[in-house]
Amino acid sequence: MRTSIRRSQRLMALAAVAALTTGLLAGCANDSDDDSSDNSGGGGGGDGKITLTIGTFGVFGYKQAGLYDEYMKLHKDITIKENVTTRTDVYWPKVLTRLQAGAGTDDIEAIEIGNVTEAVQTQADKFVDLGKEVDKSQWLDWKNAQATTKDGKLIGLGTDTGPMAVCYRKDLFQKAGLPTDRTKLAEMWKGDWSKYVDVGKQYMKKAPKGTKFVDSASSVYNAAVGGASERYYDKDGNVVWDKSEGVKKAWDAAMTVATSDMSAKLKQFDPTWDQGFANGTFASVACPAWMIGYIEQKSGDSGKGKWDVAAAPAASNWGGSFLGVPTATKHQKEAVALAKWLTAPEQQAKVFAKQASFPSTPSVYASLKPQADTTAYFSDAPLTQIFSDSAKTIPAQPLGPKDKPIDNAISDVGILQVEQKGKSPEQGWDAAKNEIKDVLGQ
Fold first, then answer.
1. What's the burial of 152, exposed, middle or buried (CB within 10 Å: 0-12/13-18/19+)?
2. Which CATH number fits domain 163-318+375-440: 3.40.50.10330, 3.40.50.150, 3.40.190.10, 2.60.40.1930?
3. Which pTM was predicted?
């Protein structure tokens, strides 16, 4: 997801492939982590112009796709300045502080999916109701739902999404005696991520020397839990992570991987994970749309035509953000107009064409075309069809204010205890539980 530190690390890692990868993933338009950015909340741009500031993290792709320049040509009185913070864990606390102070915010603030529920539940009065300004039917219903308050206020307009697929190495699958056709594989694991794990067991029976089926147990967990109808919170806002059927199924699938020989036991976005792509250490990975460019970069020229993409066992989402307009801005009308324009279907398609950030506006899905070299790299897989089919069927998942730290506790504490330190699944669960108690102040 454009989520947590892992998301930020991914964003920084992909600066070299901005022309291919997801905007989420390409470095920074402004390398300031925080202090060097001017978050003055707008102000006169000189010569009678209005300067609109946009606070973002990582790379949203607007500058890279030329959208700021295009908008300024269309609106001669507007100057746009993007204030970029690399890390979301640095960015969001500062946004919260400025929202509470009622001053110092940018005219437009990006909101990451892991923070949107906190914004909805605790900061809604600090944001303009954009639902009154747009045709909400332009966006996926579940995307709108994530940024909508109980009384119907829409505090953010959807940018990208992270629909899921499975990326795999055809050459390694063939050597292991498995089908390489993406349609056949999709049928083999259709319906449940545990079936994907079952394919992994088959792979390991004849695995090419030095290879594993999957990169990590955490990737299986993230993919599975991202498609659950309920995970850490229920629809009433109650914390239910330890009772959630979605969490249990995802945990069980991850534990099967963690306690077997099918995982390369790598931590995603660490240097060793990057090396795993380059060295062909693992044969498959749960693959949201934004990971396409990452794989292309990290696998390098030697991976061209060896990778393919198949539909995921079940629809799932990992990633996505929103643009909100703080009520404190001095240029509310102009900021709303810019936020609407940047997130409109036409502009989302332009960002996709530049760096493959998958839109949250389904009207453009039929016309999306990945770059030719990306399509060739992944064996001419129908990338747009695979990801759009997933995006359209992702369930509207209840989110909560502590979703991100709960998720991190399970993935980065509980699962790693089992996978990398040899603890039992019970011990891993207890470690995650203790971490979550701290997160929730229990």
1. exposed
2. 3.40.190.10
3. 0.81
